[in-house]
Write a structure and sequence with these properties.
The strands form two sheets. Strands 1-2-3-4-5 form a five-stranded antiparallel β-sheet, with helices on both faces. 31% of the residues are buried. The chain folds into two domains: 86 residues, no CATH class; 121 residues, 3-Layer(aba) Sandwich (Aminopeptidase). The chain is globular. The chain is α+β, with helices and mostly antiparallel strands.
Length: 260
């Protein structure tokens, strides 16, 4: 798993207790977590301005002067493990992944936590890949509904700025009948035209892979045309096959490891 910079989480960026809990759980046991957080909290007391900002109406630590932060760490650790560890999968897919604030900023969320985007994603997927093949929209909506189940795969991610849809992608068991040995796949990557070349597509595929890794999946696959394969090769994907199937697609893999 990535080694998150927890000091930055406490001192630089507003982050919700839910988001921090996920990242803390990835570090391992409660004792390991406490060992990581105590020195960071001690360092934070040197600067009053480093007090974390609540996010999404969730308090990161109990309301207290910054000088009491070290003593609050133990309580925070217990809260993380008591309230969140038993429901890790639901929590994982509930997190909203923050992108640095900037013009055109956006978030990436699991569709299970933002179901209001269901119809939009259904229409985009249907229009881009299935309409010309004669499949009705109702069929695609039925398939997408499987992404709302509690299973680790399939799942869908949506890029959005509040209620504004910007893009989406799916993680599915199979995306190529010719290669049943590969699974799961990042598929149906879509970004609305007005939001392209702004990092939305890159954020979607990156978070799709990392979400799969977070539930114990060691590698994920995707297929790309010759026109867009360089986009993925520049983003931690490795080519494993070329000219596959009638569309002469390139098959790529991304593995859980240092490069993720």
């Amino acid at each position: 798993m990535p080694d998150y910079n927890l000091y930055a989480e406490f001192t630089e960026h507003p982050v919700s207790l839910r988001t921090t809990a996920i990242r803390c759980l990835n570090l391992g046991s409660e004792r390991q977590l406490l060992g990581r957080l105590e020195p960071m909290a001690t360092a934070a007391t040197a600067n009053e301005s480093s007090r974390p900002t609540p996010d999404d109406n969730e308090q990161l630590l109990p309301s207290a002067p910054i000088t009491t932060l070290p003593s609050a760490i133990g309580s925070f650790v217990s809260r993380v493990h008591k309230h969140f560890a038993a429901d890790y999968l639901q929590l994982l897919f509930g997190v909203m992944i923050k992108v640095d604030p900037q013009p055109g900023a956006f978030s990436v969320s699991d569709l299970r936590q933002r179901p209001e985007f269901f119809d939009t994603i259904s229409r985009r997927v249907w229009h881009a890949w299935w309409k010309q093949r004669g499949f009705p929209l109702k069929y695609i909506a039925g398939r997408l509904r499987e992404h709302l189940d509690a299973n680790p795969v399939p799942f869908a991610l949506v890029a959005h700025d509040g209620p504004t849809f910007k893009g989406s992608t799916l993680v599915i068991q199979s995306d190529m009948d010719d290669r049943p040995q590969y699974s799961p796949w990042v598929a149906a990557v879509w970004v609305d035209a007005e939001y392209r070349k702004r990092g939305v597509g890159a954020a979607l595929i990156d978070n799709a892979a990392k979400s799969a890794f977070a539930v114990g999946i060691g590698r994920v696959y995707l297929c790309a045309t010759r026109l867009n394969r360089d986009f993925y090769l520049k983003r931690s994907w490795t080519k494993i096959e070329e000219d596959v199937g009638e569309d002469l697609l390139t098959v790529m893999v991304r593995c859980c490891g240092p490069r993720t």
